[in-house]
């Protein structure tokens, strides 16, 4: 009888705790979330347990909190009858492995716990009973080369504002396929041309040539047409044309990128000596290498660097996303000699992406030889979600709108707070440039990737327009930091890459 009473008392206390906590799905700590889930999953009465877990589960779904994230802690979650549940993604040895979930108590909820940087964004899929699937409770997804993946967005991740079309803007024209027969390659190649809004009244347009053009131009993958339209309409960049080159065989549909992009001189000769003259002859381009860019990702990043290293007579603007330099080390050879007349922007993720080889190229050649370049690292992996969000950085770096202002005139008053740094990466000092829409006091904070303040918070007086000051990270270790500048209701955050 005493044992029965003790069990009854424990059951009552558990029920009281559950009733006070199961309606709560906004948690101040990760442990609070875990404790609530554990208690709900231990309710002995099946109908009551399922009802309360459903309330709990639906609350998480409403808040887009599946997977659950707080701080840098993550809980991947699955609910349902299964014999095994696992997850694979950018973070599991770049999809080559999977990690198993464990069942929570006597419930039908499964969990896998880990940590990611506060601003990370990563692709993944669930594996339920050996079947791969999107996370059915996560609305965020990103298309890749093999279809859609689910997407985890950590609390400080900020989606690009440029990959969604701004309402009411004028759009450029994206033409249909044009076939060109290549003597250098011995086969025909398809390409499509983007011309900006107002093309008929424009002239001397810069051009960006884009490898893997069918994917960069796909609204669900690279989103580059949308980004171009937005940036041009919002006067972030000057009007620019784009040529999207399709690597697929025009007859069979097979993708030839692994051959074409492998430091292939026949491919660079096709683009430089056949495609460029054809485009320049048919469109109102600015026919000079300083106004012509090449852009590519992964193997496309490899060939972009090869273009810069071997054909700077035609391309002097080089955009490189997550380059597959590991695939062919010959890509470093052209940069071992004299400095070339190039302006380069290179980006990479730092979670199972191409950061080791990208850093080697950056430190050994771009930095050591004094190239004009920008190098960006983000807490992402080898994904279109990474590359599409950095297109604005690439395009603004090449063709910022204020570059159209003559040297005799003043820079226009900016419409919003804007922060940049040069050099970036740096060691240990960089020049911070702040464009302020109005005069007034502003606060500056430097944070690490965990959101912790690592330098003294300071207040400075900004003038309307351009402001410059030097910042040193001599007392900090190498790494990625964030400069947050706030003025009244405006805020701008800049990534600072300190390399020692």
What does it look like?
By secondary structure, the chain is an alpha+beta fold. It contains 11 helices and 26 strands. The protein has helices at 2-21, 30-40, 46-62, 213-216, 224-233, 257-260, 265-282, 299-310, 355-367, 384-389, 391-398; strands at residues 68-70, 73-79, 85-89, 99-100, 102-103, 109-115, 121-128, 131-133, 141-144, 147-153, 173-174, 178-181, 188-195, 207-210, 241-246, 292-298, 317-323, 343-349, 372-378, 418-422, 429-436, 440-447, 458-462, 465-472, 479-487, 490-498. The strands form 5 sheets. Strands 11, 12, 13, 14, 15, 16, 17, 18 and 19 form a 9-stranded mixed beta sheet that branches. Helix 5 (224-233) crosses helix 11. It is globular and about 75 Å long. The termini are far apart. 38% of the residues are buried. The model is unreliable at 1-23 and 403-413 (pLDDT under 50).
Helix/strand layout:
Elements: H1 2-21, H2 30-40, H3 46-62, E1 68-70, E2 73-79, E3 85-89, E4 99-100, E5 102-103, E6 109-115, E7 121-128, E8 131-133, E9 141-144, E10 147-153, E11 173-174, E12 178-181, E13 188-195, E14 207-210, H4 213-216, H5 224-233, E15 241-246, H6 257-260, H7 265-282, E16 292-298, H8 299-310, E17 317-323, E18 343-349, H9 355-367, E19 372-378, H10 384-389, H11 391-398, E20 418-422, E21 429-436, E22 440-447, E23 458-462, E24 465-472, E25 479-487, E26 490-498
Parallel strand pairs: 14-15, 14-16, 16-17, 17-18, 18-19
Antiparallel strand pairs: 1-2, 2-6, 3-4, 3-7, 5-6, 7-8, 7-10, 9-10, 11-13, 12-13, 13-15, 20-21, 21-24, 22-23, 22-25, 25-26
Helix pairs in contact: 5-11
